[in-house]
Amino acid sequence: MLIGIDFDNTIARYDSVFTMEAKKEGLVTSDWQGTKQDLKQKLYSIQDGGRIWQKIQGQVYGPYMYMAELFPGVARFLLRCKLQGHTVFIVSHKTKYGHFDSTKTPLRQAALDWMHAKGFFDEFAIHRENIFFADTRYGKVEKIRDLSLDVFIDDLEEVFAEDNFPNIKKILFSNSIVPQQIKTTI
């Protein structure tokens, strides 16, 4: 089976890194707690919140990428795919550089370095040539189509709603569905 998985917020979890950066920038109090989505909503409610959010994203997905965690269950899911002989592809909508990132950290390379450190190429046996980054959501969906995948897992319903999304099995990932629970559908 050919299984495609999104990267950001499906494999890589950033909640604590976003919170750390927001606290460092004085955007939330030191005792603030919440998810990445909670923080995004909070920032979008203030003046220039969209720009502030993009600036934080550039830091988290770039220089602080190494601090991201694997979502619980992802390692087990990937090992199960390996043992069952499934081929796993990672297809991500990720720009080359973060908005407003003064370090100009290459986001795609930061993600690949993180995957290497987490054992993706060794322990999980995901081939580097099975990892793709697209500049746009449309480009991401075109790559999913070109790969002729059997299933795709993503945290964004918008990806599945794209006009060009192929007629394949769609699995919407959320914090309430951990990857090992997906085994019943694959």
How would you explain this protein's 3D organization?
This protein has two domains: 2-12 and 70-184, HAD superfamily/HAD-like (Rossmann fold), CATH 3.40.50; 15-67. The longest helix is centred in the first third of the chain and has 13 residues, at 49-61. It has helices spanning 15-24, 36-44, 49-61, 74-83, 107-117, 137-146, 157-161, and strands at residues 2-5, 12-13, 69-70, 87-93, 131-134, 151-154, 169-172. The protein is globular and about 45 Å long. The chain contains seven helices and seven strands; from the N terminus they run E-E-H-H-H-E-H-E-H-E-H-E-H-E. Helices cover 37% and strands 15% of the residues. 30% of the residues are buried. The protein is an alpha/beta fold and 186 residues long.
- Overall mean pLDDT score? 92
Architecture (CATH level 2) name of the largest domain: 3-Layer(aba) Sandwich
Instruction: Write down the secondary-structure element order.
Output: EEHHHEHEHEHEHE
Query: What proportion of the residues is helical, as a percent range?
Result: 25-40%
Q: Could you list the spans in which at least 5 consecutive residues all have pLDDT below 50?
A: none
The main pleated sheet reads as: 5 strands, parallel
For this entry, what is the oligomeric state of its chains? single chain
Number of helices: 7
Residue share in β-strands? 5-15%
Q: Per CATH, what is the topology of the largest domain?
A: Rossmann fold
Looking at the structure, what is the overall shape? globular
How many domains comprise the coordinates? Answer: 2
Q: Tally of extended strands? A: 7
Radius of gyration, taken over Cα atoms and rounded to an integer in Å: 17 Å
